[in-house]
Specification:
alpha/beta; Rossmann fold; 2 domains; 6-stranded parallel β-sheet; 19 strands; binds adenosine-5'-diphosphate; binds magnesium ion
Length: about 400
């Protein structure tokens, strides 16, 4: 696959799809990791003296309810990203508030070699997530070459990730992947195809987005030797086995599936659980066996016996893929489980290949000071999961290849 390294683009307009979907706290960027991760590709294009157009989505924009649309647009304004990028590169970044039309075209036409234009949030456009062909035509017309460097969005066939490069290729224009995507593909490749001497392969799944993640288990059971399940997903499995789960979160329409997955014999569930009487204002907190969570309580973290059980499995592993905190790690009382997982993986340094895929898992590991102990911390949560699920294929990357 062609990379940005191979492009000869002096004076050409290069559209780069980045992943600037950064978190905000009170209107301020709280973690600029994703912007920093895009710098190698941007710097390379600067050195090549290209005219650089950057596009990314930021959050979600509801296009059904006009009141919500306006509120979402206000909340997910890309302008602060331009400012932060400018600070990181010590240069002026132009910003286009328009996502299409004459105003955008004029700004692109005004670009000089070695200048950067960041376009407002792609999801301001209703057609973006629908891969609208008209929008693809318009955005494709703005550039001579395209670079895909948004790994976190590569699992989505949207206009900016799929429609534009597909069209450019038809027109015989150059498309390539950026350095970030190249690194992700290489590292995640090692958990997509795991050879015998890199086993046992242990996956750890947690987090909150059960309906998104539970589908992946189907393919993980075929690839992994063990799947350790914590986080909110655990309760769907525990309920499927006939246990009482109190007020813990559960996906009732996934119970049969969860039972089937459990019957593969590869899934390891929590044996004890830290429960609380309330999520928002926990007062009564206790550790109890996982098979009998009483009414009025909900599971918030894995317990100490489960930590030992999981640690034992992790210690044997030669390859580890971890997606999703095993407890509500944002609250001090429920972070022991996630901390222990981080530490157990960190202790494998030099002995095993360890990968984190998932925004919250990555920030937990950063918060606990273990970030440099992992072999690879992926910038894409959903994308890394889907890449494993689809045997290394993602639409936004496949479209670049031949
Ligand atoms: P990632 O971003 O790593 O893919 P998710 O976004 O799926 O992970 O989930 C992260 C969230 O899951 C965290 O905010 C954490 O508080 C939450 N979580 C973990 N365990 C539980 C639980 N038992 N109950 C409710 N939320 C949980
Ligand atoms: Mg998350």
């Amino acid at each position: 696959m062609k990379t940005v390294r191979d492009l000869d683009v002096k004076g050409k307009r290069v559209l780069v799809r980045c992943d600037f979907n950064v978190p905000f706290v009170n209107g301020v960027i709280s973690d600029d990791n994703r912007i920093v991760a895009a710098l190698p590709t941007i710097r390379d294009l600067l050195q090549k003296d290209a005219k650089i157009i950057l596009m990314s989505h930021l959050g979600k924009v509801d296009h059904k309810d006009p009141v919500k649309t306006e509120a979402d647009k206000k909340k997910n304004n890309m302008a602060p990203v331009a400012k932060r990028l400018g600070e990181l590169l010590s240069m002026d970044i132009k910003f286009s508030p328009a996502t299409r039309g004459e105003e955008l075209k004029a700004m692109v036409d005004g670009l000089k070699n070695g200048e950067i234009l960041l376009v407002q949030n792609t999801r301001y456009e209703k057609g973006e997530t629908k891969n609208d062909p008209e929008l693809a035509k318009e955005w494709a017309s703005l550039c001579d070459a395209f670079v895909m460097d948004a790994f976190g969005s590569a699992h989505r066939a949207h206009v900016s990730t799929y429609g534009v490069p597909a069209l450019l290729k038809e027109e015989g224009k150059e498309t390539a992947i950026g350095y970030l995507v190249e690194k992700e593909v290489k590292s995640l490749g090692r958990v997509v195809h795991v050879s015998e001497d890199e086993r046992p392969f242990v996956a750890i799944l947690g987090g909150f987005k059960v309906s998104d993640k539970i589908k992946v288990i189907d393919s993980l059971v075929k690839k992994c030797d063990k799947i350790l399940i914590g986080g909110a997903m655990a309760y769907t499995f525990l309920k499927a086995l006939g246990h009482k789960i109190g007020h813990s979160p559960v996906e009732d329409d996934q119970l049969d599936y969860a039972k089937r997955m459990y019957e593969t014999g590869k899934i390891v569930l929590p044996i004890d659980t830290v429960v609380a009487d309330s999520f928002d204002d926990p007062k009564d907190i206790k550790t109890i066996p996982s098979d009998d969570i009483p009414e009025g309580y909900q599971g918030m973290d894995i317990g100490p016996n489960t930590i030992e059980l999981f640690k034992g499995e992790i210690a044997k592993a030669k390859t580890v893929f971890w997606n999703g905190p095993v407890g509500v790690f944002e609250k001090k009382q429920f972070q022991a489980g996630t901390f222990a997982i981080c530490k157990a993986c960190a202790e494998l340094k030099g002995k095993a290949f360890t990968v984190i895929g998932g925004g919250d898992s990555a920030s937990a590991c950063k918060q606990f000071g273990f970030k440099d102990e992992f072999s690879h911390v992926s910038t894409g949560g959903g994308a890394s999961l889907e890449m494993i699920e689809n045997d290394g294929h993602l639409p936004g990357i496949d479209v670049i290849g031949d």
